[in-house]
Amino acid sequence: MRNVGSSPAFVILGVFILSCVSHVRSDASDHRYKEGDPVPLYANKVGPFHNPSETYRYFDLPFCSPDHVKEKKEALGEVLNGDRLVSAPYKLNFREEKDSSVVCKKKLSKDEVVFFRKAVEKDYYFQMYYDDLPIWGFIGKVGKEGKSDPSEYKYYLYKHIQFDVLYNKDHVIEISARMDPHLLVDLTEDKEVDAEFMYTIHWFSIINSCVTVLLLTGFLATILMRVLKNDFIKYGQDEEAADDQEETGWKYIHGDVFRFPKYKSLFAAALGSGTQLFTLTVFIFMLALVGVFYPYNRGALFTALVVIYALTSGIAGYVATSFYCQLEGTNWVRNLLLTGCLFCGPLFLTFCFLNTVAIAYSATAALPFGTIVVIVLIWTLVTSPLLVLGGIAGKNSRAEFQAPCRTTKYPREIPPLPWYRSAIPQMAMAGFLPFSAIYIELYYIFASVWGHRIYTIYSILFIVFIILLIVTAFITVALTYFQLAAEDHEWWWRSFLCGGSTGLFIYAYCLYYYYARSDMSGFMQTSFFFGYMACICYGFFLMLGTVGFRASLFFVRHIYRSIKCE
Q: Which ranges does the record mark as transmembrane (predicted)?
C-alpha cells in the first residue's frame, strides 16, 4: 500500500500557512439541507492506530467500492495533512433513517483475507468525513479471550456500521460511527469467506424537541400568568367589593388546599422511593457522561445500578420519614418499612418468578446462588442500615410543613365535576405530552436493552431526560391549577398520579414494541420482557410522580402566599 501520510515538517508548514490565510473551501455547499437531500460523505484514509503518520488510501483495503470512485478536490491544508478523500459507498441522505441496509455482498479471496487480517492485527482504523465532520472507527478486532499464545488469537472484520447523526433544523452538527461487535467476519483462517457489508443510520432531532418544550413551556406559562394575574386582581379587591362577588375559584378553598392527603404513610413512602430513584438516575447519567459505560465495559451499568441504589437508600428513608412527620404521622417505623418495600418488594417478587423460569429453561439468565447471596448481603448490610439511618435523621429533623394558609376543621364539599376532570382522563392528558417528548428515543433504548445494539450517545439521552422532567413538571402544574380553579382541593394524590402516568404510557409502548418492532417469542422471553419492563415503568411512575408533586407543591404554595388568606 502506498503511504499518503505527511511529514511533520509539512504539517508545521501547513499550520503556519493556515494560520495566516483563511481556508478556502473547495465545496461550495452552505451546509443546509432539506429532508432527503444527499449529504457529501467521503472516505479518507486508513492506517495503524498507533502510527498516526502511516496512513493509506481507504480503498487500498479491499472494501466495497462504488462503481465510479469520485475524488474530492482537496484544499492546501487537506493535502498537507495527508488527506485523500474519495466518495464513500454509504448513502446517508439528510434525515432519512436506514435500518441494516446492505452496501454489497462480496466473496473475499484468500489474499484479501490475509490483507484484512494483517490490518486488523495492527489495529487499523478508518477515517471519513460527513459534511466536513470527521468520523473514526476500527475496521476489526482481535479475539484474545483467555489465550496467551498469539497463534491462538481470532481475527474478526466488522461488517456493520451504525451512523448516529445529530442535526439542528437543516444543519448536521455531529456524527459518530459505532461498529456492531456481534456482526463479524472471521479472518482467522487463510480461506475464502463471504462478507455482507451493512450500515444503519440513526438521526437525532434534539433541538426540535427542545423547541417543542420551550413552546409548550411558554404557552403554559403565558396562560397561567394571565389567568393568575386576573385572579390576583380580583382577589386583591377590598373586602366590601369581595363580598358582592360569587365565591368561586381557587382562593375560596384556601382552608382545604393544604389539608393532608389520605393514606399519608403510603404517600410519604412513594415520595421517598421516587426521590431515591431520581437520585439514582442522576448518578447513572453522571457516570455515563464521563465514559464509564463504554461499549466493551460489560456489566458496568448493572453493577452501578445495584451499588448506587444501595448507597442512596438513606435518601429514601430521610425524605419519606421527614415528610411523614410533617404530615403529623405518628408510626414512623411502619412508614420506614413501607418505604423499604415499596419498590424493592415488587422487584424482588418479579425477580424470584423470572429467575425460577430461567432455571427451568437452564438459561444463563438465571443468577448463580453465589450472586444472589452477594445481592442479599448488600441489601442486608448496606441498604437496610442506610435506610434506617436516613429514617432516624428524618424523624429528628423536626421540620414543619410550610402552609401559607390555615386549614379549616371540616373539609369543604367538592362540587360535581364533568367526567373529563376525573383522575383517569387527567392522567391520560398528563402522560401523553411527556411521552411524546421521549417517544422517538424509546425504540433505540429498547433495541439496546432487549436487542443486540449498543447505545453510547448518553449526552443526547441526558438532554431527553431533562426535557422529560420539564414537560412533566409543567403539565402537572397546569392540571393542578385547573383542578383548584374547579374548587377540587384533593390535589395531592392527583398531582402524583398525573406526574407518574408517563410510566403507564411507556408500558403501553412495550406492547407495541413486542408485537410490532421485535421478533421475541416464547414464554421465557415474554415473561422476562414484560416482567422487568413492569418494574422499570413502575420506577418511572414513582420518580416522575415525585417530580410532578414537588412542582405542584411549589406552585400551590406560591399562589397562596400571593393572596391574603383569612
A: 201-224, 266-294, 300-324, 336-361, 367-389, 427-446, 458-484, 496-516, 528-556
